[in-house]
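The aim of this short unit is practical: by the end, you should be able to scan a pair of folded records and say something sensible about each. We start with the first protein, listed as its amino acid sequence and then its structure tokens.
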Amino acid sequence: MRTDSSRGTLPAREHLPAGDAGTPVLDVVIPVYNEEKDLQPCVRRLHDHLTRTFPYAFRITIADNASTDTTPLVAARLAAEIPEVTNFRLELKGRGRALRTVWSASDAPVLAYMDVDLSTGLNALLPLVAPLISGHSDLAIGSRLARASRVVRGPRREFISRAYNLILRGSLQARFTDAQCGFKAIRRDVAQVLLPLVEDTGWFFDTEMLVLAERAGLRIHEVPVDWVDDPDSTVHIVSTATEDLKGVWRVGKALAGGSLPLDRLTRPFGDDPRDRELTDVPTGLARQLVGFCVVGGLSTLFYLLLYSGFRQFGGAQTANALALLVSAVANTAANRRLTFGVRGRGGAVRHQAQGLVVFGIGLALTSGSLAALNAATGSPAHSTELAVLIAANLAATVLRFLLFRAWVFPDRGETGPSTVVAAHTPAASPAHGPTAPYAPLPQRPVPHRPYGEPYQTTQVRAGDAADGSWRDATVRLQPVRPHDTDPGDPR
């Protein structure tokens, strides 16, 4: 149980303040590669939608992934004509690389991205970012697989999408429903800490980001979307699926080995409602109830099996007493260790003796129930006996828990009205601790590096726009590692 009040790396989530009119609250990134045909209608349609419906200042950033056609010219022209549009140029391909670069440099508190084909209905954009603005969630994703989603696409893509998400659920225990929908948003304070942990620079970037965020205990909000498949999509399904499977293996291996410092993503203690203090509630009551119910359920099954076996060789009362005696000893030992957290052999004999007293009370209840049944019916069926014993055991269970808690395993440290802190522990890396070799996290975004490997810093040139407006800005990146040229990027 976490009882300290130490702060995590991330600040507590709060509703974003309404800033100055010129300060963008939302920065929507559109990563593109050779999209000279679709870029202009996409940007103008998105800009018109945000102008009409979005209540905060916004920015649209075109992230050009080393396009070889006239896409850079179209992007520059849009940035010159529309004040809310800016243009970034990257000399290396990769959607993940583009998003990391722009998001790391952005000053907007909410960062989003969408595909240039606008397959996702824009009416979902405000519901996507609203939970981030309000402080409710850390990330938000559009889901094509939610029940309320309306999707038009072929059976091949439908099968691939669902199969991929099943793989994520089975291998990485992911709980989000759609990893690859090109419609996501993240709070900037989360992005600054999370993005340096994400290694992929291509299409697996989304999945890796979501898996790490979920394992760290961050809140991911899902929005059902209307989505229409783009028949002219340039995504190469086979190569993309292969890279995704490689990414699943790499991330799964890193999580299993505990090499990810997910403790950097924890929120301050008290930010989660489960961390709040509750007065006049016995310490650990909720956890003990759950443990007692689990042990009690297993003990009941064990008791019924023993009763059925002993019943073959003796009467109902004898079978009940023997089955209850054996199951009571096992029940006391299990509750001692699992429910009330008592370790070691100290006091074990006393606990078992007290447990036998509780057993006697249960025996009286169940035996009395059987006696009443025999008096009422004379020769009841075996199934009727079992039904009566189940009902009697349920009544005895409530009394057994109260006696265990107050008499057999009391909390010796309680001297007055108690205060409980809910047993909520955010997910963290098994490797973190006093010996973990991680330096303090810098305040500004840091260049990407893979898990545990050193890297060379990169020079990012953002044009001559010193006022931070990003107008006509250009970014030229050098490979993070000598071999990081992304030759097989499916874009």
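Turning to the second protein, read its sequence before its tokens, just as you did above.
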Amino acid sequence: MPRPTRTQQRGDLVLALVLFLGGLLSAVLSAVSGIYGDEQGSLAVALGYVAVLAVPLAFRRRWPSATAVIVSVAYFLAVTFRIPELYAGNIAMFIALYTVGAWEQNRRRATIVRVAIIVGMFAWLFVVMFQDATQPVDAAVEGAFSRAGAFSPFVAYQLLMIGVNALFFGGAYYFGDRSHQQMRERAALEERTAELEAEREVTAAQAVALDRVRIARELHDVVAHHVSLMGVQAGVARSLLDRDPDAAREVLSGIEGSARTSLHELRQLLETLRAPGADVGPDTAPTTHGLTSIRGLCEEATAAGVATTFAVIGEPPLDPAPLVQVNLYRIAQEALTNVRRHAGPGATADVRLRFDADAVELEVSNTGRGGSSTPGLGQLGMRERAAISGGTIEMGPRARGGYLVRARVPAARAEATRV
């Protein structure tokens, strides 16, 4: 159960002030009109009574039970001793009983306090009714109800009083409990929402951590390949240095190229890890897969029930760098996975690997319903792979139906990743 906020406490102060001002007006008008006749109490006492009603309401959410008891006792004394004020007291009674039901933390106490007040008020009402019923009828008194007949005006008036009081106290009891239940449900919902948000953040952090582990592993494989190659080449160059200086010079040039490639890929890895919120940092995997493995992906997709065609357009002047090949392979893999997940039954897919003078392009299209409406980690991973390869990617529904994923890596960037 939540505690009252500062805004709610300020609202209680405003409520108490409004009730106090309204009660003052009601007391003055009631005293002037003489609602109790000759037995009416003084106006000064009425003003003090209004203050006793209003002040506890300023703290009603902090001490609801105490507020209800004070207001009820004050109301009982005011009516008993004919203090000229009725309406502010009735409003304060309803608010106090409602507040016990809505804000009392101890539910057992809330029930006991409200039941005790309601039973006490009805007992008092029946005592007054009994006294009125046993008093001799004075026909000369203006406004006296006739008691003639089985269902006399006097009986009707008493039943009306019972019904009005039952609705008054029953309404305060019911709406207080209902408000308490709604606040509990709201608090439980907010708590659950906070838990889900925390779980989502933890899950996202874990996903990012796993992605970075795979980044490090894959780039380690690429760099380790070049480093080991450099070691072999250095040994060859050392053995040729005296016998064939020209051949040694060519081997040393190869070592230089491998070193540049390794340094470039290490630089990309460091940039990714330094910017955890950036759009680089792909979901990478071992570098044993390349462009030649995409045909196997298409065969696997066809075997899984999605008829998939594969075509290679153009001839590459040079094989793209291993990092670019791995990223294009994984983009194709994720795109075909999305086809199986989202395209629906009967969908077909078409994979095209296109080489031209200025770029390497991978295109995966399907004839189904399209991709997922909400971007997930898979789409984010494809964007990151394209970015770290120095290329671009476009994903979206096709005008003629289906979905298209097209990744394009400029030839200059593909070769820059190599040398």
